[in-house]
Amino acid sequence: MTDFPTDDARFEDFRLPGVPELRPADPGWERRLQDWHEMMRVRPHAELPEVLAGARGELSLRRVMGRHQSSRFGHIFGGKRVPRDPANPAAGRYEIDLVVVTPRRIAIIEVKHWSGTLRLDGEQWIYQRRSGEVQVFDSLVTHNDSKVRALRQHLQATGLDVPRDRFGQVVVFTHPGLDLDERLAAHPSVVTLYDLQVAGSRFGRGVSGSELLLAKLIERCAKPATATKLTEGLLEMMTPATTTRIAEVVGQLRTWDVVRLHGGRELIGDLIWVRVDGRRIGVLPACRKASLHWWRGKLWGLVPLLGLAPFGRMRGDLLPTTSVGMDDCVYFHEAGQIRPSVIALPHVDELRTG
């Protein structure tokens, strides 16, 4: 079993020590009673408090970041994941918060909704929350450069050899309550809401702050930044056909897969395979969803206990409609974890592929 530290082991009871043994079909009463007891032990898994706390601050922005938006200046894509190495799928993928594609440049944008203070200590970024908690990060700008390199390699693999000087990257801080030290405030790759001239009192009627932020980012990336950029050739634009093709390739990049547990908690990562009705399925189409309907609770659980229906059923466009049982599971590599883990399907209400 993958080690997964937690403050309360109950929150992780949906993870299994390994792939459950596939038991032979048995319509007998004893098997149904055993499965009924297992189903009675499935409890709701609420979203983690730290996730909910962060979601409140970023909810408006995240709602639009997951969509493709376009304007007369260009395109913006949210939550895309690019292979670290096109020649080596096992190397994994980088997550890019926002990709802006304009006729002049392609920008990789990291979005942080931090409140407190942020300062440099050598090459490290020291973030102190208002609660007093201190976190240390390697340079976000350097990390973003790795994403730029990966995206350029991905475009090259599709036949688009875009010059390196057409790429840019910025780290955008969206919380007005973040204080930056002088070095970070002056860094050309660090942007705040103030820099984009976005403030709550200036939003037009019917336009959300997050939508205006994204529009400003597209506009900023579409225009030459400085006179030195003009001498580098950025005054010349890429052809409309090239820009359109780049936007198509970026738009086809996948996002995170999601496992939504009973109770609302969501896990994001890579859905490697699913075992349903005793069959393991490893190649899953993108942008699909499967809803799982289980007979839970002492009263409703009597339906499968009496043999009137299977304990669960899967519907949606991810997989054909089928019955699901207590032994079924998914193999899921959660973001931030070293290794994948096996998750029992009776704890799951929904699967989504990015």
TrEMBL record:
Residue ranges constituting the NERD domain according to the UniProt record: 53-174
A Pfam cross-reference name: NERD
UniProt cross-references to InterPro entries, sorted A to Z: NERD
PANTHER family xrefs: SI:ZFOS-911D5.4
Protein name per UniProt: NERD domain-containing protein
Organism for this UniProt entry: Methylibium petroleiphilum (strain ATCC BAA-1232 / LMG 22953 / PM1)
